[in-house]
Write a structure and sequence with these properties.
The complex is a heterodimer of chains A (268) and B (262). With 268 residues, chain A is an all-alpha fold. Chain A is built from 13 helices and no strands. Chain A is globular and about 55 Å long. The mean pLDDT of chain B is 83. The chains are: A mainly alpha (268), B alpha/beta (262). Chains A and B meet through helix 2, helix 6 and helix 13 of A and helix 1, strand 5 and helix 3 of B.
């Protein structure tokens, strides 16, 4: 399926660029999943097993339905898989100068292609997770409307624009500040607890109204749950605001990367 | 007839700031700012006012002693380093830099490395597919196409790299102490022949080497760099002869200084 989509796209223009991005993404994906025996099977079953464990813990061990939400495991996972993809995207982007240094040094590769291919690798993993989630959610009686599912790519694009933009920016920062990784870990942790991965957005609005308006992920996760859990129409205004923020973050990261990548490479 | 310029370097200066300990972490930068510590960084001029045009099909050699700025100049040509303000670089064509630690990912198979390198150089999958067997056969790696490169011997890796380079279809080859003769005797003969016919005779080549014999044999023009400055550009024989004299004089001077010290 993915090969089919890629073949269709690559006919449109600049075949070799699409192929380059695809190849770089494909080899990274292989490295990540094919290096062990269960590789791709593991990629598929890992999220399913996780949902099952969370379901069991929240429904039977803790014996509560988590903040008044019917199926807390699905509530959690409908956002968590996207949050994990976002974090992975940022962390792998931060390593690009080192992991792909041999291409930058010897072949004058287009830097943006390295970040895009990294995003495609992460997206392939996310697609596995979404499929696993939808299978499990269907088993629990969740329904999905076709119109809503069509809007899912817009939300994914929003997350990836933010991720690539921040990744470009942080990969440069990381060269200048060796200890930034510790700080990033803390920011990610704060982000996790303030993005509505675990709490419903109403709770954040009630307790921390400022965060509700600053953090785009709250709106993104609300809309994702509308599509993947509640089967409600998505909030277009929030989506538009989030996409605008994402585009600004991407442009900012792009600008920083272009301005400082040579300087960063010298430092490396 | 006007020759086509493929590389043009104008007013290229490059200075590096070497920090005297610390300053690489947020904590260090923060405490430094708080204490208003005077910076003890040193500035080193790696390249000083380099100007040169390189034309299509030309083989240009770059010589100079260790630390003279040769590798910095290559990094400027590859645009991995930026020149200081005012410097201008123009390159026209796909560049590939070949050195002994050249671009392969050890965790990938020979096949994947060929496809990654090929596609970064702008080849389509179709084109790479059509020359894939040729690359593998040339490198004598039949049967190892899907083996991760980390399991290759040093010789096998060099053969793979060389074969990718020979078939890469780059326009400009930047050779950093990298020449045809690699691997065992058979492969050395084959690679030497391919190096001359497929790279030197058909492409623009920038060669950095300490071997003056290679420079004399393969280059049509030589640039001599000393302490970041361009001392001489001209025909190989003329430049290498003066360079040899210079190195000899320096050696003599060092010896005499050492004797005086004793």
């Amino acid at each position: 399926m993915l090969n089919w989509i890629y073949k269709k796209i690559s006919r449109i223009e600049n075949i070799s660029r699409f192929e380059r991005i695809w190849k770089l993404a494909q080899v990274d994906f292989k490295k990540r999943y094919y290096n062990d025996k269960f590789g791709i099977v593991w990629a598929f079953f890992n999220p399913i097993i996780r949902v099952m464990v969370f379901y069991y813990v929240f429904e039977h061990v803790i014996n509560r339905t988590g903040l008044g939400i019917d199926n807390f495991a699905l509530f959690l996972f409908s956002a968590l898989i996207f949050w994990m993809a976002f974090v992975e995207l940022i962390k792998t982007s931060m390593k690009i100068f080192r992991s792909k240094g041999y291409l930058i040094k010897n072949l004058k590769v287009n830097k943006i292609d390295l970040y895009l291919s990294n995003a495609v690798t992460s997206l392939l993993g996310l697609l596995f997770n979404i499929t696993s989630y939808m299978l499990v959610a269907t088993l629990f009686g969740t329904t999905f409307s076709f119109d809503n599912i069509l809007l899912l790519p817009l939300l994914i694009i929003t997350i990836y624009f933010i991720g690539i933009g921040l990744g470009m920016y942080l990969s440069i920062c990381q060269i200048f500040f060796n200890d930034i990784n510790h700080l990033i870990d803390i920011i990610i942790l704060i982000g996790f607890w303030t993005s509505g991965v675990i709490f419903p957005s109403e709770l954040i609005l009630e307790k921390f109204p400022a965060i509700y308006y600053i953090n785009p992920f709250i709106g993104i996760f609300d809309n994702l749950r509308n599509i993947l859990l509640f089967d409600n129409p998505i909030n277009i205004t929030i989506l538009t605001i989030n996409m605008t923020i994402a585009i600004f973050i991407y442009i900012g990261g792009f600008y920083i990367l272009n301005k400082y990548y040579q300087f960063a490479f010298e430092k490396l | 007839m006007d020759r086509k310029k493929v590389i043009s370097l104008k007013n290229i200066n490059k200075t590096f700031k070497i920090k005297g300990g610390g300053g690489g972490t947020i904590r260090e930068k923060f405490t430094k700012a708080l204490r208003r510590k005077v910076s003890n960084s040193k500035t080193i001029s790696a390249l000083i006012d380099i100007n040169i045009d390189i034309y299509e099909g030309e083989s240009i050699g770059i010589i100079g002693r260790n630390g003279s700025g040769k590798s910095t100049l290559l990094n400027i040509i590859m645009e991995t380093y930026s020149p200081d303000k005012g410097g201008k670089i123009y390159t026209n064509g796909k560049l590939i830099r070949l050195d002994l630690g050249m671009g392969v990912d050890l965790n990938l198979s020979a096949r994947d490395n060929i496809y990654v390198n090929g596609s970064v150089l702008g080849l389509t999958f179709k084109k790479i597919g059509s020359i894939f067997e040729e690359i593998i056969n040339f490198a004598n790696l039949e049967g190892f196409e899907n083996t991760p490169v980390k399991f290759f011997s040093k010789g096998m890796r060099q053969r793979l790299l060389f074969s990718i380079a020979i078939h890469a279809e780059a326009d400009i080859f930047v050779l950093d102490e990298f020449f045809g003769g690699t691997g065992d005797l058979d492969f050395r003969k084959k690679s030497d022949h391919a190096f001359k016919n497929k790279i030197l005779n058909k492409h623009t080549v920038v060669i950095v080497s300490h071997s003056l014999q290679i420079i004399d044999t393969y280059c049509s023009r030589v640039l001599w760099i000393e302490n970041g400055e361009c001392l001489l550009v001209g025909p190989p024989q003329e430049v290498t002869t003066k360079y040899k004299q210079f190195v000899q004089e320096k050696k003599m001077k060092r010896r005499n200084d050492a004797k005086l010290d004793l």
